[in-house]
From TrEMBL:
Primary localisation category: membrane
Parts of the chain that traverse the membrane: 173-192, 199-221, 241-261, 266-285, 291-311, 337-368, 490-511, 517-539
Any Gene Ontology CC annotation: plasma membrane
Family the UniProt entry places it in: Belongs to the CTL (choline transporter-like) family.
Lineage: superkingdom: Eukaryota
Its job: Choline transporter.
InterPro entries according to UniProt: Choline_transptr-like
Subcellular localization(s) per the UniProt record: Cell membrane; Membrane
Keywords from the UniProt entry: Membrane, Transmembrane, Transmembrane helix
Topology in the lipid bilayer: Multi-pass membrane protein
Species name: Zosterops lateralis melanops
Single GO term (MF): choline transmembrane transporter activity
Pfam families: Choline_transpo (PF04515)
Record protein name field: Choline transporter-like protein
């Protein structure tokens, strides 16, 4: 991209871009060099600084250019000219000749060539474009061909004038309503945190009632019309109603099954939305992330358009079929604009991916910081710093993968547009199917990329490793992902609709009292489009935060279980969700009986008598006394009995690979334990003598030893 920019500036004529040039290769506002074989070239046009088109409304839609002779003139016509006499009078008054160079102003009304060499009538009122010295018509209705869908609407200049006057008259209201949509979006992001639980269940109830009501109405209409069948049309309608009713019933049943499966996973979506609200409280700069991204995109698009325009000025002057001059590049360099288009897609995706990585890094920092008071002063800037220092390659690779999918889809869309009405039905269907498949693939890869950036922010791994890890996590939590992406996205979509409707309603109420114009449809459309854009920018950040939180939550629950040394990092709301899920799983696994309320020992053949003996033995151990099976102990236990009974709740189990490890572990933990904690040591029979020796040595060195219960491996019947 840098090479293309440098080449276009070095070989292109910046003066041709800024000052403009006529159809003969002359640059306006300076002396020019003669082009071989071209008449009217090499003229001194120092005093003619503006480009004027003889027929500015003759637009070539295929090549996107004005098919008209261009001349350099001294001034643009500031009023409409309807006859050759008006053009002659304008030239004599302003010194600006609007006909071809070979005609003198005195010949405009007498020379028969004036019909071809002078502008097409009427000559529209025009004004110079700032910085680019082109005369452009003030009334832009002749450019309506660029928007073929609106040609019939804007062809009436009176309608266009009323629309434009409506926009100009209500510009203060439009700005105020745009600001209102911005405020509403920020308020909604705060409110979602507090009403997420109620909002989800309200939507669920509405969907259920709507599906049931629609199905019931269809069956009611079917039963009612079945009573009176008089014509063939009535029979056809009855058959259609039956099909609709069956389809609605199937849809309702499927919807109920999906909600039945996902009812518990909706709680996770609610918890994630609640935590996302807390994230925005601790990281308020996240709210402004869309503005920074949009600003960077605008800067890049401006640069891209400037380079593209410079590319259009490169090349050598070549006569075309009509005898005018065109500037063309020869050789492979003429295809550089193709790579320039690829760069537009890639770098735009790269900028958006940088935003995703920045948000992911900041949210990951928030999630995995136990004490929120210890968060960095600006987690957003810290995330940007990590991105620039370590993860630009990851972002570049992810955005390039999206580009590889987007370019073929855009090519197929271009082919489909060019062949519209010419291809047969089979080719049209295949093209649309390919476009649809590529679109789905692009969306899936975009979602996977976003989660890969989150995995990179957590583990600092490369793109491929992060994508693999993220994919595994998403597959393991497929139902949770489905619940979040359906319920969560639907909530956010309704939020966008709410903001647009609220802004539109306020606009109708305000514009209704404005009497200075007759049409206020266009101002209202502008306001609603801006409101949707603002709501989408804000709520898409919210959606991104929820997705990052979910992946952090999934990784947290995968590698941590809440035990000492493996504590969760999650928020209290998510912790409550985990605890409720565990309780539900335990209650479902215990069968609901009275005895199932307590955890049983892991054994298969022990009888209730053995459990009772074990309980009695454990309760009979005096504080500070010797443990079970110790050489000098006064209590014994049958070898076939279990080591531990169900009444022992607080215990420490030690598992070591060698007696040396056991000695070091016991010397470390025994002095720190409370005296009412039970300690169980299990070892192989061959190692038991060494275990006894070690324990006796430790107990002999302690004035108030912790009771240690000892058992050999074969004392358990369970494998």
């Amino acid at each position: 991209m840098g090479f293309i920019c440098g080449f276009s500036i070095a070989t292109g004529a910046a003066a041709r871009l800024l000052s403009g040039y006529d159809s003969y290769g002359n640059i306006c506002g300076q002396k020019n060099v003669k082009v071989e074989g071209i008449v009217n070239s090499g003229l001194d046009l120092t005093h003619r600084k503006y480009v004027f088109f003889l027929d500015p409304c003759n637009i070539d839609l295929v090549h996107q250019k004005i098919k008209s002779i261009a001349l350099c003139v001294s001034a643009c016509p500031r009023k409409e000219l309807k006859t050759l006499a008006d053009i002659q009078n304008f030239a004599e008054t302003n010194g600006s000749t609007l006909c071809s160079y070979e005609l003198q102003p005195s010949e405009y009304t007498t020379d028969p060539r004036a019909a071809k060499l002078c502008p097409k009538f009427p000559v529209p009122e025009s004004a110079p474009i700032p910085f680019f010295h082109r005369c452009a018509p003030v009334n832009i209705s002749c450019y309506a061909k660029f928007a073929e869908a609106l040609i019939t609407f804007v062809s009436d200049s009176s309608v266009l004038h009323r629309l434009i006057s409506g926009v100009m008259t209500s510009k203060e209201i439009i700005m105020g309503l745009c600001l209102l949509s911005l405020v509403l979006s920020m308020i909604l992001m705060i409110i979602i945190r507090y009403i997420s639980r109620v909002l989800v269940w309200i939507l669920t109830i509405l969907v259920i009632l709507g599906s049931l009501g629609g199905t019931g109405v269809l069956w009611w209409l079917y039963a009612k019309q079945r009573m009176s069948l008089e014509t063939q049309v009535a029979k056809d309608n009855l058959q259609a109603l039956l099909i609709y009713a069956i389809a609605a019933t199937v849809f309702t049943v499927i919807l109920f099954l999906i909600m039945l499966i996902m009812r518990k996973r909706v709680a996770l979506t609610i918890a994630l939305f609640h935590v996302a609200g807390k994230v925005f409280i601790h990281l308020p700069l996240l709210v402004f992330q869309p503005f920074w991204t949009f600003f960077v995109l605008i800067l890049f698009w401006t640069y891209w358009i400037a380079v593209l325009l410079f590319l259009g000025t490169t090349g050598s002057p070549v006569p075309n079929e009509e005898g005018f001059v065109e500037f063309r590049m020869a050789g492979p360099l003429k295809y550089m604009w193709w790579y320039h288009v690829v760069g537009l897609i890639w770098i735009s995706e790269f900028i958006l991916a940088c935003q995703q990585m920045t948000v992911a890094g900041a949210v990951v920092t928030y999630y995995f910081t136990r004490e929120k008071r210890n968060l960095p002063f600006t987690p957003i800037l810290a995330s940007v710093n990590r991105l620039v220092c370590y993860h630009l390659g990851t972002v570049a690779k992810g955005s390039f993968i999206i580009t590889l999918v987007k370019i073929p889809r855009m090519i197929l869309m271009y082919i489909h547009t060019q062949l519209k009405g010419k291809e047969n039905a089979c080719a049209r269907c295949m093209l649309k199917a390919c476009i649809c498949c590529l679109w789905c693939l692009e969306k899936c890869l975009t979602y996977l990329n976003q989660n890969a950036y989150t995995a990179t922010a957590i583990n600092s791994t490369n793109f491929c490793t992060s994508a693999k890890d993220a994919f595994v996590i998403l597959v393991e939590n497929a139902l949770r992902v489905a619940a979040i992406n359906t319920v969560g996205d639907f909530m956010l979509f309704l939020g966008k609709v709410l903001i647009v409707c609220s802004t539109g309603l306020a606009g109708i109420m305000l514009l209704n009292y404005q009497r200075d114009y007759t049409i206020w449809v266009l101002p209202l459309i502008i306001v609603c489009l801006f409101a949707f854009l603002v709501a989408h920018c804000f709520l898409s950040i919210y959606e991104m935060v929820v997705d990052v939180l979910f992946l952090c939550f999934a990784i947290d629950t995968k590698y941590n279980d809440g035990s000492p040394g493996r504590e969760f990092y999650m928020d209290k709301v998510l912790m409550e969700f985990v605890e409720n899920s565990r309780k539900s799983m335990k209650e479902a696994g215990r069968g609901g009986g009275a005895e199932g309320r307590e955890l049983k020992p892991m054994e298969t053949t022990a009888t209730s008598k053995m459990e009772t003996d074990a309980v009695v033995i454990n309760q009979s151990i005096p504080s500070g006394g010797k443990g079970l099976d110790s050489p000098s102990g006064t209590t014994s236990v049958h070898r076939q009995g279990p080591c531990c009974g169900p009444k022992v709740f607080c215990s420490v189990s030690v598992f070591c690979s060698s007696t040396e490890d056991l000695l070091g572990t016991l010397e470390e933990i025994l002095p720190k334990l409370q005296k009412d904690v039970s300690v169980w040591i299990m070892a192989k029979d061959s190692a038991f003598p060494d275990v006894h020796t070690l324990l006796d040595k430790i107990e002999a060195a302690s004035e108030d030893p912790v009771p240690v219960n000892r058992c050999s491996a074969n004392s358990l019947k369970s494998p």
